[in-house]
User: Fold these one by one.
Assistant:
Number 1:
Amino acid sequence: MKRAALYMRVSTLDQHPETQLYELRQMAQQRGFHIVEEYTDRISGAKARRPGLDALMRDARRGRFDVILVWASDRIARSVKHLLDLLDEFNRLNIEFVSFREQIDTGGPLGRAIVVIIGAIAELERNLILERVRCLKRPPKTRPLNPA
């Protein structure tokens, strides 16, 4: 039986993580996972430091669970780059990642392929941004005027 960690996040204090929690517990039960810990943050996803996420990562590095369930990838990561960094670390730690809303499951070949595709798109986006920045820094080329 796989040991699972659940991660929920809401952005404001008037929002409630119970909806996420209910669906994640149900998914864990359907897949036969044993829930070892539930981590919750009540903070903006733009914040780099989140107590629940920090605790989840500490426990991941200690090998406390085999799979992480989230309601949606935007609940755990603040950007595509952040998500890819997390997925990369989970992969190194042999921890599967499952997102309820996007139906991403890195425990299977299709889920791993989706992560590779997302990574490739993110790398393309970074390279396009770098190219645009370089173009803005270059002085414009002058062309001789065409006398007519």
Number 2:
Amino acid sequence: MRGHGFLIANFVRGNSIIHRTPLWLKFLVVAVCGAASFLIVDWAVSLAILAVMCVLFMLTGAGLRRLMRAVWMVMPVLLVIGLFQWWQLGAPTAARIVLNVLVCVVAASVLTATTPVQDLLDGVVALAKPFRRFGADPERFALTIAVMLRSIPFIAGAFSDVRDSARARGLERNPRALVLPVFITTVAYARQTGDALAARGLGEGD
């Protein structure tokens, strides 16, 4: 099964200034971009921030193709959201919402393109440790992130494979031919993942 079509860029080895930036600072940038998406009210400001994030992404050396792939995966959803918001609230608001989502996608791509997955998970564990007093388990939280990072590309690849197969049979317009195989494959993958975790004593209640 092909694992392409992930929403954010995969790690790219390099020695850029973004690669050398401390992980906590990159986490902070992503968090600020996420918070800003709720606070910015001017689409021009959103566009300027998006331009800055795109420049930062290019500084990682990941390349324009990776950036476009990360953005392209969310475009169908953003198109629907943008058109709906345009109809409901007007063009400026629609543009602001779409641009803010793109800012978050590109910011997350900067993080993942310059941080190995293991370092990213270790950072998640470190950030979650203060919440132990509230009953949180940082290791399980990191495990959840790891499973998610592995599952999304698999499901995206499953959909692409099914779509190609349906197109070869002339069934690309048949929703059942597209949705049902992906649903079955996803459920099977989830069961296999659950069995693998259970076999290692993970994911069970304390």
